[in-house]
Amino acid sequence: MTDIPDRRTVAERVAAATPDGLARKVSGFSDRTIAWLFIGPTIALLLAINIFPLIWAVYLSFTNYAANKLNATVAWVGVRNYSRVLSDPDIWERMQATAHFVVWTIVLEVLLGFGLALLINRQFRGHSFWTTVVLLPMMLSPAVVGTFWKLLFQTQIGPFNYVVSFFTGIPPSSFDMVGSVALAPWSIVIVDAWMWTPYVMLICLAGLRSVPDYIYEAAEVDRASSWRTFWSITLPMVLPFLMLAVLFRAIENFKMFDMVALLTSGGPGSTTELASITLKREAFEKWRTGYSSAFAIILFVTIFGAANIYVKALNAVKNR
Amino acid sequence: MRKLLLSTAAAVVVGAPLVGATGAQAETLTLCWAAWDPANALVELSKDFTAQSGIDMKFEFIPWPNYTDRMQNELNSKGKLCDLVIGDSQWIGGAAENGHYVKLNDFFAKEGISMDSFLPATVYAYSTWPKGSDNYWALPAMGDALGWTYRKDWFARPELQAEFKGKYGRDLAPPKTWDELKQVAEFFQKREIDGKTVYGAAIFTERGSEGITMGVTNALYPYDFKYENPEKPYDMQGYVNSPDAVKGLEAYKAMYDCCTPPGYTNAYMQENLDAFTSGQVAMMMNWFAFFPGLYKNENVGGDKIGFFVNPEEIVKGSTLGGQGISVVAYSDKQDAALQYIKWFAQGDVQAKWWSLGGYSCAKSVLEAPGFADTAPFAADFLVAMGQVKDFWQEPAYAQLLLAMQERVHDYVVANKGTAKEALDLLVGDWTEIFEDEGKL
Questions:
Q1: Cβ A269–B416 below 8 Å, yes or no?
Q2: Distance from chain centroid for Cα B1
Q3: CA–CA distance, B428 with A94 (Å, rounded to integer)
Q4: How far apart are CA A181 and CA A170, in angstroms?
Q5: What is the CATH number of domain A81-318?
Q6: Residue in B closest to A171 by C-alpha
Q7: In angstroms, what is the C-alpha Rg of chain B?
Q8: Does B415 sit within 8 Å of A181, measured CB to CB?
Q9: pLDDT tens readout for residues A279-309
Q10: Is the pLDDT of residue A111 over 90?
Q11: Is the CB of B265 less than 8 angstroms away from the CB of A281?
Q12: Are B398 and A71 in contact (CB < 8 Å)?
């Protein structure tokens, strides 16, 4: 005896399974009402913890409000906070430091991550073990990473300087990775690349494994060289994944705080003070709430705008 | 059954006062302070208060680099974590104006606590707002200033004495001026002592909280640095960036460049303590609060350590540290907290406070005959407290402090611009802050 397949829709089956009492109670509601009942709590929560603070921050950015002066009168200052942020040379220095960090970490992470993914994608002995080992750094907390790299970079006892010294012959205590103006911006790039390259690798690996074998087989039949196969098949097929990884890392690194705060505290001087560290200092150390709200809105608009343009480009690549 | 009910009722009647008494005994006060040596001494001292009053003491000690942030957040959010707070001297303007601290004038008058019984410099710095007024917001609790320690055993070595005398024409001794300080530091820099490379001096270079500002001001004050025109408040042009102030800042950078251990770009009190106790440096700048612990240190204490007051240059000057104890306005236990302050202000308690390692500000302790001989650093402490200057204590002090942290760290550690440019930029920052405050 063969089972007769149930050809009803999911909605019909759910309706049939609903107890009569409950069905009677909700029978007066339209589908739209029921949908709102389901999504209402989520929307209320989103409004309360996302949208309202955003609108509130926009309002504060036009005032002289300071969160540590509870008794002070709050005055409307128009666009003064915005003009101060945008005309402050220190803020532009911080933005340059942020851009340096974002660009170089992405370049390194994409190159290394993609390279590692190509290696890991091959079957070899101990493949699973080495994949896990490579993934370890991204499983650590950024605060922990910042703290222990501070020790690794320590001028007198840190192993990093000794390793560099071993390969280059430069005396270990003659350079200071986190204390030198020239090297500190690279120290945060190195640590971020160390920590997040595995993440890019993982996304690239997903991309590589999504390429159907028959395409490579066809290329082989056509006697395409490895180089040609890479440029014509592998890279184009993985490109959307790669672009996604770049988007995630760019957003994350644009708002990087914890690792850098622990590693360099923004120093020496203001050399590695990224935008989010400045934002935190303005908001919760200097208590310039209005000013910092304006800065936060500017950062938000920048990330949001750039991400939108990028997503359009990503869609264009995917639809090719 | 009736018997059981009667006995239960009797137990309730008899037991009720006992429960009440236990309830009174179980009252607990929370005192917030920084996590450092004197805090441990206060825990020991406060056991007497608990024994006398029946009030338990609980302590919240926060590491120095996070202390200001943590406590300012707590006070600004009207938190009830602390009933008593031993707050930094610079907080007092903001805490008074924003209503975080209970004003203590009426309490002092009622309990007969006189501010005349404390060192005037500490009353001015730790208790009053506006400055110079008779409005008291704290009781001077912990006197402190920046001083120096040195390796007495190294200074005493005949071969080093001879070499130093040959080079500089004077004995190798604790320096009296900033010029001498640099010479001594240079003399020790990268010297081999007992087979180990040592360095000249550990100074403050920390950027995140207040470190480098405290260190730099310790150089600026002897170079006659002034925050403002004495005749015209908040007029800083020509004072903050005066030619002498520029020299002071240059002197600090010269010390940093010539004589600190490698990688000394972000060091504050703990890093300096580590450098000194590990035998890495010949001299160390730090707060007097740490000196009792250092004197007891097995590696570098006892006969090996010496202390000296911040060297002078044009004038005498030391950076003020230290704190007053205040009652938090949001506490539900203000009466018990005031009881603690009343107890703490007593002469015998202040004497025990000093003996345990805390720095009393009471005249009964500091002006007692023989005080200078009670510890090897006691005489220097008295001298330092007589020449202290403090940072701005304005409500906007956090902004003022962070602006200075950035400007001086940029110049001293990151080699950005000149000392004059750094101080000019600082005047600009501070002017903008005071304009926002409506004071300019």
A1: yes
A2: 67
A3: 19
A4: 18
A5: 1.10.3720.10
A6: B262
A7: 24
A8: yes
A9: 999 998 888 999 999 999 999 999 999 999 9
A10: yes
A11: no
A12: no
Domain ranges of chain A: 20-60, 81-318
The answer to whether B207 contacts A265, with C-beta atoms less than 8 Å apart, is: yes
More confident residue, B105 or B64: B105
Residue A201 CB partners (closer than 8 Å, separation 6+): A112, A113, A114, A116, A117, A120, A134, A135
Strand order in the sheet with B56-62: B56-62, B28-34, B84-88, B323-327, B139-142
Position B4 in a domain: no
Q: Does A236 touch chain B (CB under 8 A)?
A: no
Q: Which of A173, A269, A286 sits opposite B402 (nearest CB)?
A: A286
- Containing domain of residue B293, as a range? 146-318+396-436
At how many degrees (to 10) do helices B397-412 and B243-259 cross? 60
When CB atoms are compared, the residue of A70, A71, A284 closest to B69 is A284
Contact (CB<8Å) B398/A286: yes
Q: How would residue B436 be classed by pLDDT, with cut points 50, 70 and 90?
A: confident
Do residues B204 and B215 make contact, with C-beta atoms less than 8 angstroms apart?
yes
Residues B439 and B236: their CA atoms lie apart, in Å, by 13
B207 and B110 in a common domain? no
Chain B neighbours among A 40-79 (CB < 8 Å)? 64, 67-71
Distance CA(A52)–CA(A60), nearest Å, equals: 12
Q: Which residues contact A197 (CB under 8 A, 6 or more apart)?
A: A108, A109, A112, A113, A116, A137
For residue A119, give both structure tokens: 């290696």
- Write the pLDDT tens digit of every residue in B371-427: 999 999 999 999 999 999 999 989 888 899 999 999 999 999 999 999 999 999 999
| Encoded amino acid at B96, one letter | A
- Of chain B, the percentage scoring pLDDT greater than 90 comes to 86
Place of tokens 């308690």: B349
Q: Is B112 on the interface with A (CB under 8 A)?
A: no
